[in-house]
Write a structure and sequence with these properties.
Length: about 375
């Protein structure tokens, strides 16, 4: 089969101390400190064969994520920008849906022909965090498209326990093609859902919500805020195209943060009370967190979703006197997140289809990644089959 493969050179930065685990496994805990000179190409890759509990999916749609761009983009020394867990070479792509075409001998939950989406985080279920109910923090984690082959490919093998049927979405739209694309949006939407409602505990209907960043996860956060009954939603984004997309999925106001002072806008709109819930999806907390602090309502919350490998100054006095809370979030697994997002889409409560702005064939996937780095689109879909 064909796949979009990323390879890079294992060349730790001089000041990075490689752990014994990293040496043993070949995995980098901090990818941007180890992987250099990335090379991306569509090439042949062995067809997957299902293990006893695995299914093979014919991939129908796979979205480009910010992390995919951060594998492609480099710093001044040609190290990848992505700061997380990685192992190369591998096939990229982790926001996907597909049709079951082969099943392992022990598969009980799925049948050939089933339409599914799947989790990206392959948690073990045995480590202490998993056993305590925190699969997003599994200590034996594998990640589709990061450490094991992903879905920018004709086929992918996935354990059945990570797959979620999307029949209800197909029934809602009466169109398999649209159902596959909508379902490929599940993973980034679940990342936003996990951050907003599981980690940060959500907000009350009528509360004021700000979203910094209108990439795919920020757009998903905007749509979720609308569906959950936010009183006012303000989205900040530098791209004019993405600001328009934010309006389409539920933002009441959109601003270019370079043209306004976000905290002043939020304080004016809230008549001095501040906003109740802030979402950082821009990956620029050194710029956004100070603005959130200045516009924090009493009992307000802020949640960090965007990845940013840098220290950020925080004025903790604000959190004390405003009775405010800050939350970190990663992942999308557990806590009914996938089934709840699928239900919302199937019920018509959440429609993120406007954010899909371009489609590419698998053999055009390198061009698709290059286009995504311009950060003008919402979600770019690759259609492998």
């Amino acid at each position: 089969m064909k796949g979009l493969v990323l390879d890079a050179v294992w060349e730790p930065k001089p000041d990075y101390e490689v752990s014994a685990w990293e040496k043993q496994t070949g995995k980098a805990i901090t990818g941007n400190s180890i992987w250099r000179h990335p090379k991306l190409e569509v090439r042949d890759w062995p067809d997957p064969e299902p293990g006893p509990q695995e299914v093979v999916l014919e991939v129908q749609a796979c979205g480009i994520c910010g992390s995919d761009m951060h594998f492609y983009e480099t710093d001044d020394e040609d190290y990848i920008l992505y700061p997380g867990l990685t192992k190369f070479p591998t096939i990229l792509g982790h926001e996907f849906s597909g049709k079951v075409v082969e099943i392992g001998s022990g598969v009980e939950l799925l049948e050939i022909g089933d339409m599914v989406t799947a989790e990206e985080m392959i948690w073990c279920g045995r480590c202490i965090p998993c056993r305590n109910g925190y699969p997003n923090h599994c200590t034996n984690l594998e990640e589709i498209g990061f450490t094991i082959p992903g879905a920018f490919a004709n086929y992918i093998a996935v354990d059945e326990k990570f797959c979620w049927p999307i029949d209800a979405i197909a029934e809602r739209f009466g169109d398999e093609e649209k159902a596959y694309e909508m379902s490929a949006l599940s993973e980034p939407t679940c990342v936003a859902y996990n951050a907003m409602f599981e980690r940060a505990g959500g907000f009350r209907p009528g509360h004021y919500v700000s979203v910094f960043g209108a990439g795919p996860i920020g757009l998903a956060a905007t749509g979720l805020a609308k569906a959950a009954g936010a009183g006012t939603i303000v989205t900040f984004e530098i791209s004019p195209q993405r600001r328009e997309l934010a309006k389409k999925v539920g933002a009441d106001y959109v601003y270019d943060p370079r043209q306004v002072t976000p905290s002043e806008v939020l304080m004016e709109l809230s008549k001095g009370a501040g906003f109740d819930f802030h979402v950082e999806a821009a990956g620029a907390p050194h710029l956004t967190v100070p603005e959130m602090e200045k516009a924090m309502a009493i009992n307000g919350k802020m949640v960090q979703i965007g990845r940013a490998a840098r220290r950020v100054p925080m004025y903790l006095e604000t959190f004390q006197v405003r009775r405010a809370q800050a939350f970190g979030a990663q992942g999308h697994s557990g806590h009914e997140t996938f089934p709840n997002v699928i239900r919302m889409v199937a019920a018509g409560r959440l429609d993120l289809s406007p954010i899909i702005t371009a489609r590419y064939k698998l053999d055009e996937a390198v061009d698709a990644i290059a286009r995504a780095t311009r950060r003008e689109d919402g979600k770019i879909m690759v259609r492998p089959n």
